[in-house]
């Protein structure tokens, strides 16, 4: 369990800088292009470790496994992360970070129905407190960037589906988070590459442009890569995409789906702080209140998952030290 919370912390740190880094990368790359490149890089970084994990588990990949990876890659890379990247362009990075962090609200019910994970009163209380905190940060009374908000929520919902399907499929096939992430990212990148090639067909490109979908028209593949843009590409590809998601799924395995989703309760608390430090976005009073509530909700989840373990250990100790009564 302790290892699981270390994974959660590392993932939360990397994810909390994601929107800021992608906002900067958007100046040099097309939204679909940067999504394709960062997930391709992430899959390559994780591949040696994924192969090592497969060998350790004595698992051989079959055709049906790649069908599964094609599905998870489609949901994660092509759908969720494309919507996510576009939402960053049309809105503030910190707001998108907070909205994307709503995905546990989708994950926990899905995990309950698909994975039979129990939803306790404490988990519901944690969700309610964290949701109130997120609403405080968003401040719906002064809501703007409606398109960005809609896209971010759709991205969060797709990511929740990916998380639950990925967890269920991994357990069924004997995978771990590194294997799932690496091959899902690879298949998703290949699927996106095919779509990028299609977007460059003159007839398709012209149709997309005429219908106001320039972002999806004639998508560049390597254009924009330079010494100036390389550091941001490496950061979002290697660290955020490669290590960030690996830590998240390793946390899911070390704990469970519900506990691992704490990453997305911690993230909206850290993202505004990083935004203040790195791009000088001011932290408002309602943001501070929201951060406190989100941390309170995460603490409840943390204590809820530790209490049963402690109780179980105490019971085992009592049984172990129980005096043996001899018959007379």
UniProtKB/TrEMBL annotation:
Gene3D superfamilies: 1.10.3730.20
Cross-referenced InterPro entries: Diverse_Substrate_Transporter, EamA_dom, EmrE-like
Membrane topology listed for this record: Multi-pass membrane protein
One Pfam family matching this protein: EamA
Keywords: Cell membrane, Membrane, Transmembrane, Transmembrane helix
Membrane-spanning intervals of the chain: 35-54, 66-89, 95-115, 122-141, 147-165, 177-198, 232-250, 262-279, 285-304
EamA domain ranges (all copies): 3-138, 148-302
Cellular component terms (Gene Ontology): plasma membrane
SUPFAM superfamilies: Multidrug resistance efflux transporter EmrE
Record has Transmembrane as a keyword: yes
Protein's cellular compartments: Cell membrane
Similarity comment: family membership: Belongs to the EamA transporter family.
Listed name of the protein: EamA family transporter
Taxonomic classification: Bacteria, Bacillati, Bacillota, Bacilli, Bacillales
């Amino acid at each position: 369990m302790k290892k699981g919370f270390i994974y959660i912390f590392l993932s939360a740190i990397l994810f909390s800088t994601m929107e800021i880094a992608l906002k900067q990368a958007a100046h040099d790359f097309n939204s679909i292009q940067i999504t394709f490149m960062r997930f391709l890089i992430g899959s390559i970084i994780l591949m040696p470790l994924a192969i090592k994990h497969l060998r350790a588990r004595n698992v051989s990949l079959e055709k049906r496994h790649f069908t599964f990876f094609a599905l998870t890659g489609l949901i994660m890379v092509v759908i969720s992360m494309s919507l996510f990247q576009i939402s960053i362009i049309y809105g503030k990075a910190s707001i998108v970070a907070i909205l994307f962090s709503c995905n546990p609200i989708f994950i926990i019910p899905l995990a309950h129905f698909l994975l039979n994970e129990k939803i306790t009163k404490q988990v519901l209380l944690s969700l309610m407190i964290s949701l109130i905190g997120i609403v405080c940060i968003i401040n719906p009374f002064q809501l703007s960037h409606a398109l960005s908000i809609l896209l971010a929520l759709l991205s969060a919902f797709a990511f929740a589906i990916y998380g639950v399907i990925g967890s269920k499929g991994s357990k069924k096939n004997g995978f771990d988070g590194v294997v799932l992430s690496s091959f899902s990212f690879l298949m998703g990148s290949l699927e996106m590459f095919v779509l990028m090639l299609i977007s460059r067909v003159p007839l398709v490109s012209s149709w997309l442009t005429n219908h106001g979908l320039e972002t999806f028209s004639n998508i560049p593949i390597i254009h924009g890569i330079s010494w100036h843009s390389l550091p941001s590409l490496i950061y979002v590809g290697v660290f955020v995409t490669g290590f960030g998601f690996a830590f998240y799924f390793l946390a899911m395995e070390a704990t469970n789906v519900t506990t691992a989703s704490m990453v997305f309760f911690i993230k909206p608390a850290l993202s505004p702080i990083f935004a203040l430090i790195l791009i000088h976005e001011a932290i408002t009073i309602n943001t501070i209140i929201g951060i406190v509530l989100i941390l309170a909700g995460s603490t409840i989840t943390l204590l809820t998952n530790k209490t049963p373990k402690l109780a179980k250990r105490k019971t085992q100790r009592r049984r172990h030290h129980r005096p043996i009564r001899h018959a007379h």
